[in-house]
Structure formats: C-alpha cells, structure tokens
Design a protein that fits this description.
- The protein is built from 2 helices and 28 strands.
- It has about 350 residues and is mostly beta strands.
- It has one domain: Beta-galactosidase, Chain A, domain 5, CATH 2.70.98.
- The mean pLDDT is about 95.
C-alpha cells in the first residue's frame, strides 16, 4: 500500500492516489477525486504488465475533459429523460448535461468531487474506503445522501467495488463504476471476445433513452450470449446500432442468484488476459467507446482514439425514475442502498 499526492484542485483540496498490489501481479491506483480507478496493471500470459484501463497520469485532465474515465458516477448513472422525474407527486428538475437529458449525475456529479478517503490492509487484501455526502438539492435531487464506496484488491486476482448509500428523503440512487477497459493495453477493442449473460436488452430512441421495451437479443447485433468479437457487428446496418454509433445500450442480465452473478466475460486473444464481471445489479450498460475522438491524451502520450476502450457499467436501468415497469431505483429514509461488483482477472 502506497499513498501519495496526485494533485490539487482549484479550491486547494489535495487529491491523493492509493497504489494497491496483490500477489497475483495486479496493481491498481485509486484516486479520492471522483473515486477514480486511474490505473489497473494486469500481467499477460508472458507475465508482462499492461494498463488495462484508460486514464491520465495527472489530475488536470480528469478535471477538465475526462469522459468519466475510471470514475464512480452518480447520484444516477446513465440517462434520465428530459432531466426530470416525478416522485411522490413532486416534480424534480435535474441538470441537463447530455442534450435534453441528465447524464451520470449532472454537471457536478460524484465523478467530480473529492471523496473522504481511508486505506486499509488485511492478510489477504488491500483497499480504500471513500465517503461523500451529497446535499439536498444537489444537481436537482432531493435528500441528503451519504454514499460510501469500498475498493478491495484481493489475492485472488479481483478488484471488488462495493456501494452503500442512505438518504433522509426519497431519491433515485443508481451508482456505477465507469472504467474504460482495453485488455491489450492499447489499440482498437474490436478483437476482444465478449460474452454477456443477457438474453434481452432495452432499445433506445434517438436521444438514447430506453423506449420502455425489453426485447430479445436473438438475431440482432446485440446477441453476445456466446463469445463474439466486439467489432463483428459494431457497424451493422441496424437502427439501434446507428442510434448509438455502435454499442451504448443497457442489457438485462439473466440472473440466477440473489447475490453475485456473472454478467460478462471478455478475452483478449493476443495477450491472453481475461476479465470476468460479477454483479448484484439487474443491468449492464455496454459502451464501445464510440465518442472517443483522440482529444484525450493518455499516459504514454498517445491519443485515445475512437473505440480504444469499452465500458461494462453494472447498473439499474436508464431512465428508471420515469419508467415504472423497470426495477425501482428509489431509496427511502430508513433503507440502505447496497450494490457490489467484482472485476476478476485471469489468463486464457
């Protein structure tokens, strides 16, 4: 465990970096700004380390221009249509930061604040506990929300992420970890083999808001029930693919347990690196990095080009506060929001 100063915010707050390592060769760096996974170094089948998440080696680009690289997003991950919802007969207006929609908590979401941090070490793991209090009215949301994120790097090759939140007034809560992965370390992600534990997905309208339908992936470019290269159908002549500019859709997970269930498996054939994602959440947003355009310059000085990273955002469904038939995201006083996701690394 190593702790260092990563930078300072404009208001003078110091941002710390926590470097964690385990006996299986994994190394990660966690920031208390945005609860960001800034680095995640994983060995290939020859034992060579590469950083498998997109990120920066300085604080300034995270503040100025990051597309949520590695961050915890909230209060509400993903989109809420029109930046509004009605709860208990009261309409709430949220910050519109994605065209007409509210995205990932708004202009100053959980990804853009400094969290209170505390490191820990056990016999089998190292980790960081991060806490943040979001005040009543924050970005338009009701209630004072106390949120906690715990990152744990285990000796079994896992990076576990646990969320917990409470509120003093009913409010939507939907937290997610927003790392962009590239198991090769760089280049186009089209050759990665992706398997999703999802036989259905939620189609979107022209503003990338779910239409309310839940449809089968069978016979569509969204069928990843068997290992399929990400790039195979990424530019298919399909209305949903055109709307997302590739993949930017919520998949409805085929859950077989009330606890952790495997949501995704990704294999990068050249390096042999394998990522498995387990979660307690009902959905997963698969995003293929379509909006990356080279403007973000990575650690090695190379621009992050289009589709040089993919996201597997475990979550409740987008726009759930406006779609009553989706699983509820409303947290009420006296309740505790809990969510757990595990990123497990191995070799093929």
């Amino acid at each position: 465990m190593e702790q260092s100063v990563f930078g300072r915010m404009a208001n003078g707050q110091t941002v710390h970096a926590f470097k964690l390592a385990n006996t299986s060769g994994l190394q990660t760096q966690i920031l208390d700004y945005g609860a960001i996974v800034a680095s995640l170094r994983v060995p290939d089948r020859e034992g060579r380390l590469a950083d498998v998440v997109l990120g920066f080696d300085r604080l300034e680009p995270y503040i100025a221009s990051s597309p949520y690289f590695g961050a915890v997003v909230g209060r509400y991950a993903n989109r809420i249509a029109g930046g509004r919802f009605v709860l208990d007969d009261t309409e709430y207006r949220l910050a519109a930061n994605n065209g007409p929609n509210h995205l990932h908590g708004g202009v100053l979401g959980f990804d853009k604040v400094r969290w209170q941090s505390e490191a820990f070490v056990t016999d089998v793991s190292e980790g960081v506990v991060l806490r943040h209090v979001s005040p009543d009215g924050d970005e338009g949301y009701p209630g004072n929300v106390s949120a906690k994120v715990v990152y744990t790097l285990t000796s079994d090759g896992e990076l576990a992420v646990e969320f917990k939140a409470t509120t003093d007034k009913a409010t939507p809560i939907n937290l997610s970890q927003h790392s962009y992965f590239n198991l090769a370390g760089n280049g186009d992600i089209g050759g990665h083999l992706l398997t999703l534990g999802a036989s259905r997905y939620t189609p979107v309208d022209a503003n990338l808001i779910p239409t309310g339908e839940v449809v089968s992936v069978a016979g569509t470019p969204f069928d990843f029930r068997e290992a399929t290269p990400i790039g195979r159908h990424i530019d298919a002549d399909d209305e949903q693919i055109r709307r997302g500019g590739g993949y930017d859709h919520n998949f409805v997970l085929d859950r077989d347990t009330a606890g952790l269930s495997r949501a995704a498996r990704v294999v990068e054939p050249q390096s042999g690196r394998v990522l498995e994602v387990y979660t307690t959440e009902p959905g997963l947003q698969f995003y293929s990095g379509n909006a990356l355009d080279g403007a973000a310059i990575g650690r090695a000085g190379e621009p992050y080009a289009r589709r040089s990273g993919f996201c597997l955002e475990t979550q409740h469904f987008p726009d759930s506060p406006n779609q009553a038939h989706f699983p509820s995201t409303i947290l009420r006083p006296g309740q505790v929001y809990r969510s757990r996701t595990v990123f497990r690394f191995a070799l093929a």
